[in-house]
């Protein structure tokens, strides 16, 4: 049984860094993810890199396009697990649930993009499948958009609502500082 949870890094691919900075929130998310990744590597704890492979020709995440490649600072090491997905939820048709169970991992920490899409859907499934699920708020980001009523929403509003949807029901939402403080006290 793994004593430290698996870090699941969602869709930190080059194409996610292309939208204009004013389209997203939390410009420091990549640095926070890199720091958490370094912490997991130092501990020798399980790491899963999730990559979205689009089924839509012309998408930046279509196989063979530069956008599908991992961001250089967050490249998986050869021994780290890589999951490819075609839908937002990293558990769907990916073998992720089995990979975690085979290793006795019952806790997961989710970071990445986008908060209201792949992060939220993966965290919901993680919680529903019985994993103790954590989402690190400052290690995720979202993009601005319109709500169902047509009201424009900032990226921060989209991010905050997605985290509110998850917290307490499917996952525990923490900042990276809260996570590190809790886990340095426990070990």
List the helices and strands and how they pair.
Elements: E1 6-10, H1 29-43, E2 47-52, E3 81-85, H2 96-102, E4 107-113, H3 115-128, E5 132-141, E6 145-146, E7 152-153, H4 155-166, E8 172-174, H5 176-186
Parallel strand pairs: 1-2, 1-4, 2-3, 4-5, 5-8
Antiparallel strand pairs: 6-7
Helix pairs in contact: 3-4
Entry summary:
Helices cover 32% and strands 21% of the residues. The chain contains five helices and eight strands; from the N terminus they run βαββαβαβββαβα.
Explain what the structure shows.
By secondary structure, the protein is α/β, with parallel strands linked by helices. It is 32% helix and 21% strand. The protein contains five helices and eight strands; from the N terminus they run βαββαβαβββαβα. The protein has helices spanning 29-43, 96-102, 115-128, 155-166, 176-186, and strands at residues 6-10, 47-52, 81-85, 107-113, 132-141, 145-146, 152-153, 172-174. The strands form two sheets. Strands 3-2-1-4-5-8 form a six-stranded parallel sheet, with helices on both faces. Strands 6-7 form a two-stranded antiparallel ribbon. The radius of gyration is 16 Å and the shape is globular. It starts with 5 loop residues before the first strand and ends with a helix. The mean pLDDT is 94.
């Amino acid at each position: 049984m793994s004593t430290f949870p698996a870090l699941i890094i969602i869709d930190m691919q080059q194409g996610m860094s292309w939208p204009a900075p004013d389209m997203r929130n939390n410009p420091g998310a990549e640095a926070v993810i890199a720091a958490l990744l370094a912490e997991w590597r130092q501990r020798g704890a399980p790491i899963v890199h999730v990559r979205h492979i689009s089924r839509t020709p012309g998408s930046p995440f279509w196989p063979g396009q530069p956008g599908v490649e991992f961001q250089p600072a967050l490249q998986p090491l050869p021994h780290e697990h890589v999951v490819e997905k075609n839908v937002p939820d990293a558990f769907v048709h990916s073998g992720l649930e089995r990979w975690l169970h085979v290793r006795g991992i019952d806790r997961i920490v989710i970071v990445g993009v986008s908060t209201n899409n792949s992060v939220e859907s993966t965290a919901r499934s993680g919680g529903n499948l019985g994993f103790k699920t954590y989402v690190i708020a400052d290690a995720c980001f979202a993009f601005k958009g319109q709500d169902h009523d047509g009201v424009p929403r900032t990226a921060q509003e989209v991010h905050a609502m997605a985290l509110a949807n998850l917290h307490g029901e499917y996952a525990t939402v923490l900042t990276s500082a809260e996570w590190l403080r809790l886990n340095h006290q426990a070990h």
